[in-house]
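Example for tutorial group B:
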């Protein structure tokens, strides 16, 4: 269970994530301990299967607002779909923490490009504030106003 401070931060991060709008298909995930420590992330099966997954194993590219990218493998487990190989690199490089919220936005299904918008539960770190700023390029994350 998350501590009260983190829950409050997570609530704020989730509110900001829910206010985010995109013209592209998206899926929102709150980071739980298992997503930070495990080598995989279960993602909305309906989202992936409908928009991205054509075979039992596939690959995608995760991209954050500053343009950095991470290749990840997609795999099915039962009825679920998960980011597998490459997920831990993404977690570590972006310093994801329990309670952070990620919005996964499928911006290019042919290239399998998924933009990841990060909403931090803790706003005390300058690293977190910098990474949460708006993208510089309009075409990097196309949002509806």
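The residue assignment follows.
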């Amino acid at each position: 269970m998350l501590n009260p401070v983190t829950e409050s931060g997570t609530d704020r991060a989730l509110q900001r994530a829910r206010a985010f709008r995109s013209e592209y298909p998206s899926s929102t995930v709150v980071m739980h301990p298992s997503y930070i420590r495990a080598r995989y992330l279960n993602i909305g099966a309906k989202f992936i299967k409908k928009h991205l997954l054509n075979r039992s194993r596939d690959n995608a590219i995760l991209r954050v607002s500053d343009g950095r990218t991470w290749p990840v493998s997609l795999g099915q487990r039962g009825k679920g779909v998960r980011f597998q190989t490459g997920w831990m690199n993404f977690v570590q490089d972006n310093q994801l923490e329990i309670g952070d919220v990620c919005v996964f936005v499928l911006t290019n299904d042919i290239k399998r490009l998924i933009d990841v918008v990060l909403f931090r539960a803790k706003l005390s770190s300058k690293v977190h504030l910098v990474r949460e700023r708006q993208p510089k390029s309009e075409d990097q994350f196309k949002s509806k106003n």
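The beta strands are 26-30, 41-43, 57-63, 69-77, 80-83, 101-108, 113-119. Compare this with the pattern of hydrophobic and polar residues in the output above.
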